[in-house]
Amino acid sequence: MRDTSHAVEPGSAAGPARTKGQGGGRRLEAAELLPRQVRAHRSPAEIHSSIVGGALGIKGHDGAMASGAVCPAFAYTIVYVTDVEKAAAFYAAAFGSDVRRLDQSHKWAELESGATTIAFTPLHQRETDGLSGEVQLPDAAAARGPVEVCFVYADVDAAYRRAVEHGAVPVSAPEQKPWGQKSGFVRDMDGNVVRIGSHVRE
């Protein structure tokens, strides 16, 4: 039979956990739930944050995280465009990515772009104008938005030429960067900046 006299029950955000035993056992302080070598380098506030935030991975009887911790995955980069179908076709031709999905409403398209999906959706819709704010495109040739899309290639020069030949607006020809990447910049049909680069060498 398994000895449960010292099994730990997860606590709530409002208080520490308990040890199982006769009479309910004693209450464990939050710090006792961390390994000794970790406790030595954390302040009481950091320890409390770890417990409440679920960083320890302590699970309840149903297998769920006791504190509702989240483990995010970067799933989408969404580009707001004037014409979803044309934008998807442009990206496929200019940057060499296949179109994975074009919704029948023509309000959503996706590229085959690896672990993170690049998607396109209209500039003006309820999700922007009515909920999160109107999308503002650059109002001058020298202006740009705060986010860029970057594609990496084995041959950056060839990829840059292909993009320009298929309608991308040249901004800066590829050059070697001090951080170990070769990259150049173009604009798509809506003026968004796209980086064409190599993998960064360590």
What does this protein structure show overall?
The protein is an alpha+beta fold and 202 residues long. The chain has 2 domains: 1-71, no CATH class; 76-197, 2,3-Dihydroxybiphenyl 1,2-Dioxygenase, domain 1 (Roll). 21% of the residues lie in helices and 23% in strands. It has 5 helices and 10 strands. It has helices at 36-39, 44-53, 84-95, 126-132, 156-165, and strands spanning 8-9, 18-19, 76-81, 99-102, 109-111, 117-122, 149-152, 169-176, 182-187, 193-197.
What oligomerization state is this entry in?
single chain
The name of the CATH architecture of the largest domain is: Roll
CATH superfamily annotation of the largest domain: 2,3-Dihydroxybiphenyl 1,2-Dioxygenase, domain 1
Major beta sheet, specifics?
4 strands, mixed
How widely separated are the two ends? 53 Å
Give me the CATH fold name of the largest domain: 2,3-Dihydroxybiphenyl 1,2-Dioxygenase, domain 1
- CA radius of gyration: 26 Å
Keywords for this entry:
disordered N terminus; 202 residues; four-stranded mixed sheet; alpha+beta; globular; 21% helix; 2 domains; 23% strand; 2,3-Dihydroxybiphenyl 1,2-Dioxygenase, domain 1; 5 helices
Quick rundown:
21% of the residues lie in helices and 23% in strands.
What's the layout of helices and strands?
Elements: E1 8-9, E2 18-19, H1 36-39, H2 44-53, E3 76-81, H3 84-95, E4 99-102, E5 109-111, E6 117-122, H4 126-132, E7 149-152, H5 156-165, E8 169-176, E9 182-187, E10 193-197
